[in-house]
Each structure stands twice: as structure tokens, then as C-alpha cells.
Amino acid sequence: MLYEQYLTLNQKLHNKGAGDIPIEVTVERIAEILFCTTRNAKLVIRKMTEQGWISFVSGRGRGNRSRLTFLVDREEILLTMAKDLAERGQFKPAFELLHTHGEGNSIDQFSVWLDGYFGLEKEHKTGSETNDVLRIPIYRPIHTMDPADCFCSLSAHMIQQLFDRLVIYDINTKRFIPALAHHWESNEDATEWTFHLRKGVLFHNGAKLTSEDVRFTMERLASDRRNSWILRSLKQIEAPSSHTIRFVFYRPNWIFLRFVTAVSMSILPKDYAGLSEEKYWEHPVGTGPFQFAEWTECCFTMNAFPYYYQGRPYLDSVIVATLPEEAGLIGGSSRKWSCLNRVTAENEMDTGAAEDTSNSQDTKSFDQIASEHYCTGLLTWNMTKEGSQHNAKFRQAVNLYLDRVRMIEDLGEHRSHPAHSFLADNRYARQAHVVDELHARQLLKESGYDGSTVVIGSYGLHLRDAEWVQSRLADLNIKVIVVARDMTNILADHLVEELDCIIHSVVFPGEEVCLIENYEQHGSYVKELLDPGITEWVHERIDHALACRWADERMAILEEIEEYLRREAQVLFLNHSSFQIQSDASFKGVAINSLGWIDFKEIWKS
User: Fold this and answer.
1) Domains recognised in the chain with CATH numbers
2) SS3 content of the chain, % helix, strand, coil (to 5)
3) pLDDT by residue (tens digit) across 65-98?
């Protein structure tokens, strides 16, 4: 409070001259500036004088004004206050303070300080004992910790820290790895799947995992949740014993083992561990490597679970700080801690991650780590509303005119190569993108485009892609406006009626599972904007894929859906963005998972 009063007073009275120039002012004027009584104004003056921030000489006699001298640079006070707020986990107020009172490069200086604040540090406790604490920044809030409602990679990654699944799929080795279930089998036609649970697995509250926890989780998931699609055609769930769970389906589901590995299938305790659902999500309990500690507007904190059945994490605590999106665009913090930022389905790209650090004052050595996984940028047309986008020739004209190579060259960052598919490694992946401006103009003319405005919706750092598309289509004489929205409400009913397309991205950590999710999940941009005339056909093709035993056959069927969207240009594939990190060489166990994030459990510092 005293800091802010000093800044306010300085801002109102300082005449931009030398800091030691006395300013004539009355106590009444100071009270007016600070919106307080003269008595409180005198108290504030005394406190500031004691702090050595000001010199105040009271005026003697009628008509003689007091003289106030500011002794401390306001930027110094401002930064001190911002740092104090940050150290208390109040990052949003810190940036708001800098915006309100800052001048010049205050935010840049603060971001440079954040370079040293974020990272992995050993905090001393007592004697030789230390706590390993990892602090990392993100630039968009965590939307949910509920697996049943998870829809973006940031939330999915955080959920994986607190919760476990029955089985894990290693996309790199193509192997299923036992997790909460140590064994599983299916009947001959894949209409029944049985899982055998490990014994002695503990929830964070000390309760032991049983099949009833699994049954509760799955029945909840099946009851009209965002991710209920994953239990399509489920007939019933049986619990033959305390550590055996069986899923029975109306139709064959050969991919169910992959479904079980999805984050949305993470296991909750039965009946929310005896709490109401609302109370439970204020302090969620799982079986994961980390246990929940605190979740505020600015920070998400979790601590190592010492009784984790697969071994305690090396870290003691992880503090995830939510910074304003603008902070991710400032070279300071994002450059040094690119190892702890990522590109996700929200495409929260660390714009400084690829910058040259050879001239940095930080002379530490860094390891460059890249992932085989990619984030795919898309333009999805809204086929649920009337407009120019309903004309196939119009959509094809836009597709032919947008030069993906030029887009990557112009926008840079982590955009790696043009996209031809949702996936970066299938048979479409390395096809050369066709750009034909003459044909595009001819198609546009044939489409009967009447000059009406095309509304593109986007969010976050995707707005740069949307604005690039806007500038290119202007050359094609297509009028475009870009509407910035939050990713959580961009599909609200009134917005869907307004938008002609959305520019967004997807991350596919599970290939088959995620492709199906793309067409089935409530809230998926592709699903919600899909041509209603093909919805039934899409469902039929997915059912057919699930009935196929072999992965190649399933993928061929799923590619039929994608090929239709590509041929009709209902989805324009823009680019694949790579996951790249730069890690301090003293950090060990650093690897990028399929979500484009760092697995916290294995990180430690030498």
C-alpha cells in the first residue's frame, strides 16, 4: 500500500526534473491525491520519511507551503514492488502495477529479473537438507483439472501430474505400459475388456485404489461430459472383484486399449473421496506423482507425492505461474526458460525460444532438445452457417492462394513446415503444397463471391496467423476482419453464428485416439463446425474403424474422413509447429512429451 501511495504521489507531483528538487505542496493537496484524510496523509508522509523515500519540510506560518523532495527513483520503487508481488505469487497484479505506474522499459526490466526467478532451485530448509523447487511460467490459465472436461494440452499435462490412467501408451516405442492396471485382456470380438489393478496403490489422501474407484470414474465420464464420446457404445461396467474391472460394449472396439490411455480416462476416487463435487475440485485428489497444494488466479502449486507407486518424483514442488500473454512476447524470461515453455494445442508459442543466446550475459551451457511431435495449425470453415464459405470454389480459391511456405517465412518462430494433414508423419505429410494464384482468382470469380466480409475468429498467438491470412486475402480482394476471442468461449452460440472460420491448432499425442476425438469431442472446433450433412457418415466411418482389429485398416478408414475434408477444403491445413526447448545443461531428465510439455517427474538438477 505504501509503495503504491509513493508511486501515485510521485506520478502526480514529480516535475520530471532532478530527483532532489523540492516541490512545494500542502498536506491537503497530498490528502487529495491519495484520497485520504489530512491526518492519514501526515501518517503516510512520516512513514515515507522513515523509509528514506522522501524529505518533507513543513511550511511555517500563513501562506508558507511545505516542501517535499523525492529521494528514491520511482522506477526503483516500482520494480521493488513488482518483485515483491511476484515472489508472493501475484504475477497478474505485478504486471498491472507496471502498466499503471511504469514508464519506459519497466516491463522489460521486470522480465529480465524473472529470468532469475523462474527455473529449478535448491531451497535450503534446515542443516544440509534442501527442497528442489521448479518454477515455470505459462501464458494462458489452466482451464480445468477435470479429466472428463479436459480439451487442451496444457490442462492435459497438468492432469497427468495429479492423476493416473489404467494403461500408458508410449508413442515413441509403440508399446502399452502397465500403470494402475498391471494386466489386461479382451474377448475374441473386443466387446469385453478386462483390467487387473495393482494392489496397494494410494490416493493422495491415503485411501487405497479399488475397482469401485474405476467404476465411479467411468460412469461419471459416460454421463454427458465433454469427453463422454470415448465411452461410445458402452453397455455396462462390471467389478468382479476389488481389483478387477470389466467394460462391456454393444459393438466391437479394438481401439479401446488406446482409449484407456487417454488423459480423459484418468482415475478419480469414488464419490469424490467423500466430498461434494464442488468441494473436491477445490482440492482434487488423485494417485499421480504430484499432489495438489494450491490453485489461485496466478499460481498452480503441487508437491511430490512421497508414496507414488512408481517412485517419488525427484522434485519436491512445482509452481506454475500464469503470466499475462504479453510476457511471453518479451525476450527476457521466455528466452532463458524456453526449456519450460512449449507449443500446445492452444499454440502458446514461446516467441523468444529460438533466439540466439550467444551474446547473452548468462554464460551457462544449454542443451537443445527437439521432439518428434508437432502441433498442427488449421483454418476450419464454419459449415453450420450461411455465407461465402459454403461455396466449394470459394474455399478452394482461398486454399490455392495461401502460400504456406511464405507464411512460415513471414511468421517464423516454431512453424516448421507446411501441413497437408492433421498428422505430421503420414503419407500426406511431405507433399508439396500447390499454390496457384491465377487458378485461385478464376475459382473465386466462378464462386460468385459478392464482396461480403469474411469473419475469422482466433485467439492467443494464433492471431498472428489470422492477421497474415487477412493480409493475403486482401490481395485477392476478399474482405476479412479478424475477431480476437478467448479459446474457452470462441464456440459460444452467438459467436458460432458470427464466425465464418476459426484459425486454431491441434496436438495429437495419441494419433488414432486424437483423430477420433477431433470428430467426436464436444467443443472440438472441427466437430462443432463440421458440415451437418456429413455428421452421420463420419460417425458410421468411426464405428467401422473401431471394429477393425488392425491399426493400418483403422487408419485407412479415418483417413477417408480427412481426405473428404481436404478435397472439399472444409479444413485448410496450414503448418506444423515443432516442439523445441533449450535446457540448462545442469538439468537432468529433461524430455518433451507428446503434448509438447516437460515431464516433471523425471527432472532433477545436478
Assistant:
1) 2-110 (1.10.10.10), 115-124+131-143+287-366+588-605 (3.40.190), 149-282 (3.90.76.10), 371-578 (3.10.105.10)
2) 40, 25, 40
3) 788 888 888 788 888 888 888 888 888 888 888 8
